[in-house]
Amino acid sequence: MDHTESRDGTDEPTDDTRTTPAPASGSMPASGSTPAPASGSAPEHVPEPESAPTPGPTPAPGPTPESKSAPDPAPQPTPGPQPQPAPESAKKRRRPWVRRVRRAVLVLALVLIVPLVAVETALRVNYMGDPADGTYTRDRDAMWLGHAWVDGRKKDADVTALAGRLKDTGVRDLYVHTGPLEHDGTLPRSVYPRARWFIDAVHRELPGVRVQAFLGDVLANGGPEGLELSDAATRAEVVRSAGQVLDTGYEGVHLDLEPLHSGDGHYLDLLDDLRRLTKGRDAQLSVAAHQIDPLPHLHSVAGFVADHPKWWSQEFFGQVARRVDQIAVMSYDTARLFESTYGGYVAQQTSLALEVTPPTTHLLMGLPFYYESNPSHWGHAETVGAAVRGARLGLSRTDPDRELFGLAPYIDFAATETNWREFKDGWVR
Predict the structure, then answer these.
(1) How confident is residue 109, by pLDDT bands cut at 50, 70 and 90?
(2) Going by fewer Cβ within 10 Å, which terminus of the chain is more open, N or C?
(3) Which long-range contacts (CB under 8 A, 24 or more apart) does 86-91 make?
(4) What is the pTM of this model?
């Protein structure tokens, strides 16, 4: 979640980037000119001297009969400067190179544009139709909250206002940002001094709603610094930090580590360790999940080109889903340009996730409760209304009776009245 608050909730605002060839320097004698002496001939326009023969080649002594009977060849005109290569010649030399470039550009355009048009068309078609009756909230929704709820900036009146927002909705889990984790996996208690107050206030104002500690960090594979999952000691510290927040009173641990490569076995090991901890405490283990390949093996291409994987394989998504109680898909920041294609994308993601999420795991689809306009997120296209309708379509087509299914708005402090209205009108009813 790298927008609005760098995915970690810490940047929340406080309340209070041819040449033309040169003519030959001479011309051939014109026909009908006065014949020159046998020793040579002269051009017509040059007068021939009367007292002296026209200069020419000196005859060799003792001419043979042949030389007497046949005149010496006429002198050839002095050659002029040779013309430079004509542009046509240059063009001919360049044409193979130009043709190769043009061909490469055309091939590249076809490789990029044709699949893109095909995908966009398929997503638009995927958004067509009507959701099935009954595909509304199951009262198992969740919401991501910013860090201000646990660092001292929020007051009792803020919790009351939040309770008013969530009343009569299906939100039953709150993922409140309590980190970020240090790169070694530790979590200073000083970053969440008001966590106990917030947990108690939610239980008072919103009975039956669980509060989970949203813990996240940047992984080292996304840059020169970050949390290194391959280090066993670091993973052990993450588990210890999870136990630390459960001791504080949280009813679950919500993990968001990015960017996470598909197939990362160290991540699966971490989830196994965390699951043993949370089950022993009767607490929830939930994760924020990358999107699933919309095209086969797209995660491999993205990882090779950018080293910042946006997608997981469907197989890896299923491996993660089987290790947790809840899995929430970050189904936003999709770079879709139109509401219809964004909604079709969410419908596709919902179906792909449902296919590999066991019925005992609670699946949630993320909603963009914020507005941005940039190449990864076009606010006019990624609307809450389109996401809600897309999720309902995917649910209708894949598993309309799935009970452990919900939606999860991201994030509270950036939400607009339009976001709330579209969520309630399209999903809560």
Answers:
(1) confident
(2) C
(3) 86/18, 86/19, 87/18, 88/18
(4) 0.76
